[in-house]
Amino acid sequence: MATPEYVFFDGKIVPYHEAKVGVLTHGLNYGTGIFGGIRGYWNDTEKQMFVFRPLDHYKRFLDSSKILRMELPYTKESLTEATLELIRKQNFRENVYIRPLAFYGDEIIGVRLHNLTPRMAISAVPFGKYIEQEEGAHVTISSWWRVEDNMIPARGKIVGAYVNSALSKTDAQLSGFDEAIVLSQNGHVSEGSAENIFMVKNGVVVTPPVTENILEGIVRRTFIQLLQDELGVEVQERSIDRTELFLADELFFGGTGVQLVSITKIDHRNIADGKMGPLTMKLRDVFFDVVFGRSAKYRNWCMPVYKK
Ligand code: PMP
C-alpha cells in the first residue's frame, strides 16, 4: 500500500514524510496510544465522498483518550473538520480508510500515563476489503483470550491492546482460517479480532453486551438500529456461549474494516447450510445503501466531504 501524500499532524496538514517520530517515543515503546478507524465512501452518482458517522467515531476516540488520561486540544467537531480537509487536500475519489492516532510523544524512559504530552495524527488511504471471503468466512475460536477490562480495557481503542488482536488474527490465518473469534476469560464469546459479532437464532439477532470486553463498535450500533427500525427484527444484547455459535441460523461480523462479513463455518462446522443467510443479505443491502448516502433517512450519518 502506498503511503499518502499528506497527513494531519499536531494541528496542521503536512507532507506525510515530514510527520516523523523518534525511536524513543513513549507510544511506540509502551503502546500508550489510542486510535480509530473510519471509512469514507465514494458515491460516484453524486460525485461525493461521505464519511460515515465521524462524530460518533471521534466521540469514542476522545473517550479512549480519557482512559489513558490524555488531554487532547481537539473536539469531535474539530477532528471531523480536520479529516474532511485532509481528504479534500488529496482529492480522493474512491473509498478511503481514515486512521486517527493519538500517542504520548515524549522520548523518555518510564512506564506511566501522567506528565506526558500527547501528539495527534490523522491519515487517510484508499481502501477496499478487509476480509477476502465476505460472503462465506471460515473462522476459528482463538486459543487467545480477549483482554479483560481490568487488564487493558477493550472499550478503549488502545494501541498496545492490539497485540491481543494480532496474536489471534495471525494464528487463525496461518492455520488457514479467515478470522478469529475471541472469548472472554469466562468462556463467553467476545468478538472477532477487529470486529463485533452477531448471531441469528429463531428470528432474533443476538450480540454480546458491552460488558463482554468488546470494542463498542459504531457499526455494531448501526446494525442494531437498522435491524430494529428497518428490518423489524428483535436484537438482544446478551452473553453467548461458544457452542451457541455452532448451532446458529446465521452468523456475521460487523465493523468499519470488515463492513459486513458472513461467517459460514466455524472450526470445520458449517453454520446452518454453510451459506450466507437471508437476514444477513438483507442487512447488507440496507447497510450499503446507508453508508453510500443512498438512504435519505440516514443521510445525517454521512458527512459530505466536497463542497457543492
Ligand atoms: N472490535 C474491535 C476489536 C475493533 O478493532 C473494531 C474496529 N474498530 C470493532 C470491534 C468494530 O468497531 P467499529 O464498528 O467502530 O469499526
Bound ligands, named by name, code or SMILES:
4'-deoxy-4'-aminopyridoxal-5'-phosphate
CATH superfamily of the largest domain: D-amino Acid Aminotransferase, subunit A, domain 2
Number of helical elements:
7
Uncertain residue ranges: none
Per the CATH scheme, the topology name of the largest domain is: D-amino Acid Aminotransferase, Chain A, domain 2
Largest sheet: 9 strands, mixed
Output the CATH class name of the largest domain.
Alpha Beta
* Total number of beta strands: 17
Q: Beta-strand percentage?
A: 25-35%
Category from helices, strands and their pairing: alpha+beta
N- to C-terminal distance: 30 Å
Helices and strands, in order, run as: EEHEEEHHEEEHEEEEHEHEEEHE
Brief synopsis:
This protein has helices spanning 26-30, 54-67, 76-90, 162-174, 218-229, 242-246, 278-291; strands at 6-9, 12-15, 33-35, 38-43, 48-52, 96-104, 118-126, 137-145, 179-183, 189-192, 196-201, 204-207, 235-237, 250-255, 259-266, 269-270, 302-304. It is α+β, with helices and mostly antiparallel strands and 308 residues long. Strands 8, 9, 10, 11, 12, 13, 14, 15 and 16 form a 9-stranded mixed sheet that branches.
Structure overview:
The chain is of the alpha+beta class and 308 residues long. It folds into two domains: 6-126, D-amino Acid Aminotransferase, Chain A, domain 1 (2-Layer Sandwich), CATH 3.30.470; 137-291, Alpha-Beta Barrel (D-amino Acid Aminotransferase, Chain A, domain 2). Helices cover 25% and strands 29% of the residues. The chain is built from seven helices and 17 strands. It has helices spanning 26-30, 54-67, 76-90, 162-174, 218-229, 242-246, 278-291, and strands spanning 6-9, 12-15, 33-35, 38-43, 48-52, 96-104, 118-126, 137-145, 179-183, 189-192, 196-201, 204-207, 235-237, 250-255, 259-266, 269-270, 302-304. Strands 8, 9, 10, 11, 12, 13, 14, 15 and 16 form a nine-stranded mixed beta sheet that branches. Strands 1, 2, 3, 4, 5, 6, 7 and 17 form an eight-stranded antiparallel beta sheet that branches. A hairpin with a 2-residue loop joins strand 15 (259-266) and strand 16 (269-270). The model has no long low-confidence stretch (mean pLDDT 98). It binds 4'-deoxy-4'-aminopyridoxal-5'-phosphate. Residues 37, 165, 191, 194-196, 215, 217-220, 255-257 line the site of 4'-deoxy-4'-aminopyridoxal-5'-phosphate. The site of 4'-deoxy-4'-aminopyridoxal-5'-phosphate has 14 residues, from helix 5.
